[in-house]
Design goal:
Shape: globular
Largest sheet: 8 strands, parallel
Distance between the termini: 41 Å
Bound molecules: alpha-L-arabinofuranose
Length: about 675
């Protein structure tokens, strides 16, 4: 879309404001004459909470399995509904029963299946190949760690592990001759090797030499360059993108997967702890949620579980925000509810989670945390009860949770749901009930068109200044419409979010947290768009929306100060949106300015309360003339921030707000 069209589409609201102004000649004259933005740096109007800008993580779009969880083998324990999904068996001569899936459900409830490979003739060739999650991303020269659990009653078999490129070349291999295991005992065998080339969509082939029978489970391949080099850890490039945002919090594990399609497949944190082989796999609700984006190979292995989420939060300096099921399955799906008199186990899960995160190592759950390697507490301060739940059923259940948690842990702040939308009967009902309950934090969600974001930059100006705080928990401008496959992470959406976020920042006394959603999407495995960060098997791609989020977060400041034109906050007037903060730690003033028009605007800043400004500052600009501009994975980003130094001359400051731009000006006070 070229500029002219964009103006029409994007700034309807500004047109309306202009028309209004034309009817008020006197005021309009003043507005034209006095263009300055007055910033009172010595009169902070609100504290910016350290949690202000954060991250919403959900295992959607291959976010965890096939995403940040760096495991390359799909269906490593043969527990998918189709036990051989992701695997291919090849044999030179077909022999009945040479590859069998065994199910010992009666004795091994959490990991019932394993694979039995029987090779009776040394001269036969027999192999099993894993296709990975949309292929395996392999990097030249990197060490790869292969492992499996196995039983081998008699010697005679050697396993050859080959990495195979998308064109069929072997680009790394190793051999493993496992020791014989006594009786029924399972052992772990492992081998590491370096790859000789890179490939975006490789696979792993295991072929068997000799003769014998081997039982195999948790067949695993990890790259060695995981986040912090942790074995069995996370994809470092994806986590680095999060760390770079310096997020105030990280919400996990979702999202609708908290609720589950029905209660049997709700997220249960206790089942995500301990050795990975004991973590019971369940289906991911995004496997079958959208008929137009079916993902039949999407399951949750929980290799990435609650311990790892807490550790991640700690690593990136974000306050952990776990969300727990409130006794209700997803209301878009089955809407199952637990009878109120059977809610105890759910409430107990919440209480135990606090003990798991914060409890002394001598407590039951503190000991579990310590046993997993983290004796120090994880400093949990808040917790969400329910994801996007609604109706009286939610309030009834929430009250039970709240009473129990507050009685035992009054210091824990609870995040409560206001449903699916930022307005309407459902919202009004919940908003009233939650405020009557003196809810700590109300979670609001808005997946809306860019125009909505522009028109709602004043949303929180009129919210009560005391009482419940707001968590803008899930939001993203939709270039088409919610759940449309045509939504793009384009510049128009990002700019409208930036405009809206100046309103969040200005209202930091009301809004204490905000996060874009969803976070990650795999280019070959997504269900939902738009998403903040797109990835393939080897690369990450920052969207324009990512840069907006990051720029707000790394320029969070500590206190909001007023930025007024003609005594009014800028929230669409002359197509401009502005907010300002000071940072006590660095002694800086940070002004954020969004220009959604095609007109370059030079805006004088009238800085009060700081004495005469001298010295240097920086100007960061994110802009594009193309509303439809998107960053493409593997290409140089077309929308990315540029920085330049500025010098303050004669104590005067102006902001040159380019057409369609988000500008951040930072100066020492
Ligand atoms: O972010 C995608 C989904 O949108 C979340 O899982 C859910 O909370 C919301 O409906």
């Amino acid at each position: 879309m070229r500029i002219k069209n964009w103006i029409t589409a994007l700034v309807l609201v500004i047109g309306a404001q202009r028309a209004d102004a034309q009817g008020k000649d006197a005021k309009r004259t003043v507005a034209l004459v006095n263009n300055d933005i007055v910033i009172k740096t010595n009169a902070p109007i609100a504290e910016v909470q350290p949690t202000m800008w954060g991250i919403f993580f959900e295992d959607i779009n291959l976010g965890a399995d096939g995403g940040i969880y760096a495991e390359l083998v799909k269906n490593r324990s043969f527990e998918f509904y189709e036990p051989m999904m992701g695997w291919k068996v090849r044999q030179s001569i077909f022999r009945e029963g040479s590859v069998l899936v065994l199910n010992r459900k009666e004795v091994a409830g959490t990991n019932p299946r394993f694979l039995r490979v029987r090779k009776s003739e040394p001269a036969d060739t027999l192999s099993i190949t894993n296709e990975g999650f949309r292929g395996m991303g392999i990097k030249k020269g990197l060490r790869y760690d292969f492992s499996l659990l196995y039983r081998l009653p008699a010697a005679g078999l050697t396993l050859h592990v080959d990495l195979v490129s998308s064109t069929g070349r072997v680009i790394g291999s190793a051999s493993l001759t496992p020791a014989v295991t006594p009786g029924e005992e399972w052992k772990k065998a492992a081998v590491s090797f370096n790859s000789t080339d890179s490939t975006l969509r490789g696979r792993m082939n295991i072929w068997f030499e000799g003769a014998g029978t081997i039982d195999m489970d948790i067949v695993s391949l990890f790259p060695s360059d995981t986040w912090k080099g942790r074995p069995g850890g996370m994809r470092a490039d994806m986590i680095q993108m999060l760390a770079d945002m310096k997020p105030g919090f990280i919400r996990f594990p979702g999202g609708c997967i908290v609720e589950g399609h029905d209660l049997s497949v709700r997220y249960q944190w206790k089942k995500t702890l301990g050795p990975v082989e004991d973590r019971q796999l369940i289906v991911n609700r995004w496997n079958y949620e959208f008929a137009h984006r079916p993902t039949p190979d999407y399951f949750q292995t929980f290799g990435l579980g609650f311990y790892e989420y807490f550790q991640l939060a700690e690593d990136i300096g974000a306050s952990p925000l776990p969300i727990l099921n409130c006794g209700m399955a997803c209301q878009f799906n089955t809407a199952e509810v637990v009878p109120l008199d059977q809610l105890d186990p759910y409430v107990q899960d919440a209480l135990d989670l606090i003990e798991f995160a914060n409890g002394d190592v001598n407590t039951k759950w503190g000991k579990v945390r310590s046993g997993m390697g983290h004796p120090a507490p994880f400093h949990l301060k808040m917790m969400g009860i329910g994801n996007e739940n609604w109706g009286p059923q939610y309030i009834e259940r929430l009250k039970v949770f709240t009473k129990a948690i507050k009685e035992k842990y009054p210091e824990i702040r609870l995040v409560n749901s206001s449903g699916t939308d930022p307005n309407g009967d459902r919202y009004d009902y919940l908003n009233k009930e939650l405020r009557d309950m003196h809810a700590d934090i109300i979670d609001e969600h808005y997946y809306r068109r860019p125009e909505w974001f522009l028109q709602n930059a004043r949303r929180y100006d009129s919210f009560p200044r005391n009482g419940s705080r707001i968590f803008a928990g899930e939001y993203a401008a939709q270039s088409d419409r919610t759940v449309s496959v045509y939504n793009k992470n384009n510049w128009q959406t990002a700019l409208s979010e930036a405009a809206f976020m100046t309103g969040l920042e200005r209202n930091a006394d009301v809004v204490s947290m905000a996060s874009y959603a969803p976070l990650f999407a795999h280019v070959d495995g997504w269900q939902w768009t738009p998403d903040l960060i797109w990835v393939d098997n080897l690369r990450v791609n920052a969207t324009p929306n990512y840069y907006v989020q990051k720029l707000f977060s790394v320029n969070k400041g500590t206190h909001v100060v007023s930025a007024l034109r003609n005594k009014k906050a800028l929230a669409g007037e002359d197509s401009l949106y502005a907010s300002a903060v000071i940072d006590d730690a660095t002694g800086e003033l940070i002004v954020k300015m969004v220009n959604v028009s095609a007109k370059a605007q030079t805006i004088p800043l009238n800085i009060e309360g700081a004495g005469k400004l001298t010295g240097k500052g920086t100007l960061t600009v994110l802009r594009s003339d193309e509303a439809a501009a998107v960053n493409i994975i593997g290409d140089t980003p077309v929308v990315s921030p540029s920085d330049k130094d500025i010098t303050v001359k004669n104590g005067k400051l102006t902001v040159d707000a380019s057409p369609y731009s988000f500008t951040i000006l930072k100066v020492k006070l």
